[in-house]
Amino acid sequence: MSNFSHPYIANSEQDKKEMLAELGFNSIDELYSDIPENIRFKGELKVPHFQSEFEVKEHIEKLLSKNISTREYRSFLGGGVLDVYIPAAQDELLRRTEFYSAYTPYQPETSQGTLHTLFEYQSMICELLAMDTANCTMYDWATGLGEAALMTARIKKKGNKFLYTAATAPNRKEVLKNYVSGAKLELIEIPYDKETGKMDKEKAIELMSEGVVGIYFENPNYFGVVEDEIEEVIKVAKERKIVVVAGVDTSSLGIIEAPGNYGVDIAIGDAQPIGAGPLNFGGPLAGVFAMKFDKKWTRQMPGRIVGITLTPKKGKWAFTNTLQTREQHIKRFRATSNICTNEALMAMSTAFHLALLGPQGIKETGESMYYNAHYLKEELEKIGVKTVFNSEFFNTFLIDLKIPKDKKEEFTKFMLERKIFAGIPFSFDGENYDYLITTSYLLKKKDLDDYVKAIVEWRNE
Amino acid sequence: MTYKQATYDEPLIFELGKPGRRGHLPPKTDVPPREITIPSNMKRKELPQLPEMHEGEVVRHYLHLSQMNYCVDTGIYPLGSCTMKYNPKINEALARNEKMCYIHPYQPEETVQGILELIYNLQKILSELAGLPYCTLQPAAGAAGEYLGLNLIRAYHHDRGDYDRIDIITPDSSHGTNPASTVMNGFNIIEIESNKDGQVDLEALKAVVSEKTAGFMITNPNTLGIFESQIEEIAKIIHEAGGLLYYDGANFNAIVGMIRPGEMGFDVLHFNLHKTFSTPHGGGGPGAGAVCCSERLSSYLPVPVVEFDAENNRHFLNYDIPKTVGKTHGYYGNIAIALRGYAYICALGAEGLIETSKQAVLNANYVMRKLEEIDGLVLKFNRELPRKHECVLDATPLKHEIGVGAMDIAKMLISRGYHAPTVLFPLIVHEALMIEPTENENKESLDRYIEVFKEEIAKAREDPQYAHDAPYNTAVGRVDDAWATRNLILSWKMIKELEKKGQWPPKWPEDH
C-alpha cells in the first residue's frame, strides 16, 4: 500500500486499513478485481505535478504573466462581451462558498439561498428586458440563439424555416448553424441594407413566407447599428404567426428600448456585459433567455426555471425548480433541451451586480458608453476616418479602415505598441479589413484621443 | 450533532430599498455629455425597476440567502453521479488573477500566450487520461460535451456517405442527458435493458445493432457504480457494425489514471471538469466540459483548436479545420473554470489522481456495505460485485412495508444537516438512493452518515408520518412541487400582476 497523503484526500493510511479490514479486503486494488487485466493502463502517465500549493500557484501565475490584460492595455474590443468592472461587494458575495460549492438545488428545502437568488435574477432580467419569464441561463448568447431557434420550431410544429439577419455576429451564426443541424431546420439569411447596415425590411417581409417558424435579429446588431425600423417587420411577423426572437446587448438597456416593449416574443443575449462576470477569455458567460408568458410556449422553454411554491405544513411560500418535467433527467429523449449544468453562479452574480448598480447605474454606464463612442466617432471623422454605416448606434461602430490583408498583422502590432487592442477586424471582401470598435464605460477621453492619434500615426507611416 | 439551518424571513429584493439609494458608483467617462439621438421608437422610456439599495443592504440580503444554503463545505454531499468533491481554495484565488479575468477572447494572440499555453497543456493532460489524442475545451458542460461528441460521430458517418446511420444505442441506466443530446443531434435513440447484473445485456445489444447503428453511448462504471466488464465485447459488436463508441465521463472519478477509455475501445468522450477535477458546481453551473477523440474524428473538431507551433514557440488558435462541425460555444468554452481544473491536476499529479479514484471507490464500497445492512434497503443487481465510485440502494422494501420511500429518506437526512443522495435515479431502480461520497469524506464522516441513516429509518419505522413531514431544521419545510407547476409564478413581474388582482400572497387551501 502506498504511503500517499494529500490535502485533497480525506483518509489516512490507517483509515484505509481499517475500512478495508471491515470490508474483508487487503487492498483497494481488490475492488477493481472485476476489471479485465488487458484494459488496465500500465504505462507512465504524463501529468505535471507540483509538490506544494505554493509551487502550483507559482506555476500558474508564471503562465498567466504572459498575458496582457485589459487593465494594462486599452481595449476597444466588444462583439458580445464587454470589459466591465466587478465591484468588490459583488466578488465578496461570489466568494461565499454556500453559493459556489452547492449543487443544482435538487433538494429545495436546504437550497433556498440558491433558488431565491436565481428567482431574483430571473426577475431582474424580466425588468431589464420587459419580459415575463426568464430561465436560469443558457451557456452563452450563441447557444441561447441555437436553443431559441429550436424552440420556435417546437412551438410552431408546422414549418421548418428559421430566418436570421446577416448582421448577426459571426460566432453566433456558427453556433446557430450547428445547433439546428440535427433538427432539419432550414436557415435563411436576411440581408442587411448596404447603406444603413440595418436589416433589409422588404426582403425580410418577402422571406416571411409559408413554413417560417421564427425570425431573429440583433439590436443593436453586430455592426453596432440600432434596428430602429423594425416595427413593420415585427407587425408582419405577428400577422403571419411567426415567433419574433431578438438578441440584445444587455448593457444597452438603460438607453435602448427593452425588447418586450416592441413586440419581441423571445429575447436572448448575454448577462456578461451587465456584470455577470469579467471577460474570462470568453467563458464562463451567462446566456440570457427570456420570453413573454404563455402557458403553452413557456413549457417549451429550455433550461431550468425557478418558481414560487408553498410549504403546506408551515404555510409559507418558498422557491423550487419548476416545470422540471421538461428536463432531461425526467423526460430523457423527450426533453426540451439536453442542458443540465448551466451558468447558475453567473446568473446569481448578475443579480448581485444589478442590485448594486440599480436603475441609475444602468443608465449611467449606458450613457458613458454612448458618449465615448460618439465622441470617438466624431474625432475619427475629423481625421477623415468614416464609419462604414451611417446609422444610429450605441457603443459600437464599424470604422472604414480597409487595412489590406497583408498589413493586418503589422497594424495589430502598431496598435499594441501604443497599448491599444484596436477592435475586431471585419472584412466584407476577404481582402481588406475594417474594425469594429466598442467603447466600454472604463475608457476615458485620453484613451479615445490616443486611439485617434494612433490612427493618424499609422496613416502617416 | 445538532443542526439548524439559518432561517430568515428574507423578502424579495424588490421590496427592499428606496428610490435614490445607490449600491455602487460605476466609473463615468470624462467625455462631455451629449444629446442621445436614438429615435424615440428605440429609446428606453422607463428605466428598469431594479432595486435601489445601499451597498451594505445588498450584501446583507445576499448574505442571509447564502446562509440558507447547504454546500460542500457544510458537510457531506453524496449526490450520485454528481461527484461533489471539495473545491480547493487556491483554485478560486488563481482564477481571480487579473490576467485571467480581464482578457478578451478576440485579443491578438501574442497577448494571450499564457492562457493559450494553459489550455494547450490541459488538452494534452486530458488526452493522456482519456487515451485519446485530440482534445477541445469548447463544451461549457457535460451535456454540451455529449452534444459535441455526437456531432463528431455524425460528421464522421456523413463524411463517409453513411447517411443512414441514425441509431444511437444506450443502456436504460444511462444519464438523462444521453438520450436528450442524441435527439438534439437528429439521431434516433434506442434504449436497451440492463441484465440481472446491472450491465449491458449483450444479447439485447446484438439484437438492435444494425447497418443503421451510428454509435453507442455509455458511462463506465455505469450509473449503478458497476464496471461494464464486457466493454471490449461491446466495443467489438459496435465497431463491427460500423458504429462508434461514446464514453460519458460523468463517472470518470472511479478510474482516473488506471483505465483509459481509448484503450477500452472508445472513440470519443467528454470530461466534466466540475466533477472529476474539482471545479465548483456553483449551484447549477458553470461547469466545464472537454471532449477528447481519436484520430479519425479529429478532422471534425469545432473551431478554433488550440495548437502549438514548435518552430516559432508560439501557441495559436487554428481555425483552418476544413471539415469542422463549426462551433458549439460562442468562444473557447469555460476557460476560467478549466484553469481551476488544471490547478487541481497540477497539485495532485499522476499518483495523486490515481489515489483520489481509489479512495473514492473505497468510500463508496464502505458506505454501501454498511447501508445494505439496514432493514428495508437492498442492493439491487449482483450483490457480489464491488461497486466503483458510487452505489445505488433501493428503498422499495421499506416503501412496501411502511410507505416511506427514497424521497422521504432524503428529506429526513437533510433535516439532520447531511445532504441527501441522488434520489429516484437511475430509473431502473424504483426507490433509488444513489450515493457517491467522493474521496473528500473520511471514515468518521462516513460513519456518522451511516449512523444518521440508521437513526432516521428507525424513526420512520416508529412513525412514518415523521418521514412524510420531513425535512425539519431547514429554512423551509417540504415544498409542494406540484403547486409550483400548476400556478407558474416565475418572476416579480408576475407577482406584481397577482398583487393587482389581490391574489398575492398565495392563499392557503383550507384543508392544509
TrEMBL record, chain A:
GO biological process entries: nucleoside metabolic process
Keyword Metal-binding: no
Pfam family, one: GDC-P
Keywords: Oxidoreductase
Molecular function per GO: glycine dehydrogenase (decarboxylating) activity
Name by which UniProt lists this protein: Aminomethyl-transferring glycine dehydrogenase subunit GcvPA
Signal peptide, first to last residue: none
E.C. no: 1.4.4.2
Domain Glycine cleavage system P-protein N-terminal as annotated: residue spans: 8-451
SUPFAM superfamilies: PLP-dependent transferases (SSF53383)
Species assigned in the record: Candidatus Heimdallarchaeum endolithica
Automatic annotation (TrEMBL), chain B:
Domain Glycine dehydrogenase C-terminal: 357-465
Molecular function terms, GO-annotated: glycine binding; glycine dehydrogenase (decarboxylating) activity; pyridoxal phosphate binding
Gene Ontology biological process terms from the UniProt entry: glycine decarboxylation via glycine cleavage system
Stored InterPro entries: GcvPB (IPR023012), GDC-P_C (IPR049316), GDC-P_N (IPR049315), GDC_P (IPR020581), PyrdxlP-dep_Trfase (IPR015424), PyrdxlP-dep_Trfase_major (IPR015421), PyrdxlP-dep_Trfase_small (IPR015422)
Pfam families assigned: GcvP2_C, GDC-P
Location of the Glycine cleavage system P-protein N-terminal domain: 37-306
Function according to Swiss-Prot or TrEMBL: The glycine cleavage system catalyzes the degradation of glycine. The P protein binds the alpha-amino group of glycine through its pyridoxal phosphate cofactor; CO(2) is released and the remaining methylamine moiety is then transferred to the lipoamide cofactor of the H protein.
KW Hydrolase (keyword) present: no
Family: Belongs to the GcvP family. C-terminal subunit subfamily.
Residues with PTM N6-(pyridoxal phosphate)lysine: K275
Broad class of enzyme this protein falls into: oxidoreductase
Annotated SUPFAM superfamilies: PLP-dependent transferases (SSF53383)
Subunit structure: The glycine cleavage system is composed of four proteins: P, T, L and H. In this organism, the P 'protein' is a heterodimer of two subunits.
Tree of life domain: Archaea
Necessary cofactors: pyridoxal 5'-phosphate
EC numbers: 1.4.4.2
Name of this protein: Probable glycine dehydrogenase (decarboxylating) subunit 2
Keywords: Oxidoreductase, Pyridoxal phosphate
Annotated Gene Ontology cellular component terms: cytosol; glycine cleavage complex
Keyword Translocase: no
Protein source organism: Candidatus Heimdallarchaeum endolithica
